[in-house]
Amino acid sequence: MRQQPLAPLLLHWHRHHNQRSMPWKGEKDPYKIWLSEIILQQTRVEQGWVYYERFVLQYPTLPDLAHAPDEAVFKLWEGLGYYSRCKNLLQTARAVLRQYGGQFPADYIALLGLKGIGPYTAAAIASFAFQLPYAVVDGNVFRVLSRVFGIDTPIDSTDGKKQFTQLAQEVLSQKHPDLFNQAIMDLGATVCKPTLPHCSSCPLLSVCTAHREGTIHQLPVKEKILKKKKRQFYYFLLEQQGKVWIHKRTRKDIWENLYEPYLVESDEDIAWTKNEVQQWLLEQWGIKKYTLMKVSGKETQQLTHQQISGKLIHIRLQKPLLALQQYEAIAWEQLQEKPFSKLVHQLMKNAGLW
Fold first, then answer.
1. Which of 101, 160, 236, 346 is the most exposed place for a label (fewest CB within 10 A)?
2. Is 37 a catalytic residue?
């Protein structure tokens, strides 16, 4: 059993600081929980929100949906796409009405036996509606667990899915599985975000391995990302009293065993304006006092199967950055002795540092 006290930290944050609002949040009706989960499969929350409210208004109970004409339900679904979900919606509603008298079974295995309900949806219904101890594992949960425990197993691999699902079950609050599941998903969506996480305001900061080791932006690992053709690398060259922080790349990726400054990899094209840098430093490490020395122009390196573009952001800090325990703080003159990628060399020259 993992020892990190995730449950009390998450539950306290959820009760006192979690401001994320959604119409199905806190819902105990298994029908509405199921409806929201089916709608949100492969759909953004903002878009799904509107459809959820339309369905609840038109079909407030499961028997209402089960007795509805197919054509009317498909018309209401129009625009959501992936229409097999709508077909499964009708089949499941009618199966629950026929087999269970219109009430979803309070049993995880029975829920899995229903059309269109997989482990995630079954766990959501079981925990939110019936307080059963089943962990809900989505992309947000993968990310939080990967960073808190410092796990670099690819989350989209078979081993990774198994490992993280087991870990989620281990750290789950047995007493409040519904609140815990909601809390960890909301934390991943609003605080432990993919590119620009709000680390300084995270309730799990004190137990987060990735923050302590400076690997927030290397986790979680995805196999498919390592195979992408175009990637955006943003290097933060952090300097304090004539020393800069660098580390060696050790993961199974490009440029293994070469050195680099602190890396933020993003799917977004970020300009890194003064305001963006200020917000990032504050949310990442709570840094308020610093000097923005330079934001380089963009450089690109073409590899055999990938195109890597990037910028370098040179920051002069007033105090040492204690969070980067796995980084080396070396003198400027020692940089020339370390092996770096061609892209880092280009960016350093672009910034006038070499």
1. 101
2. yes
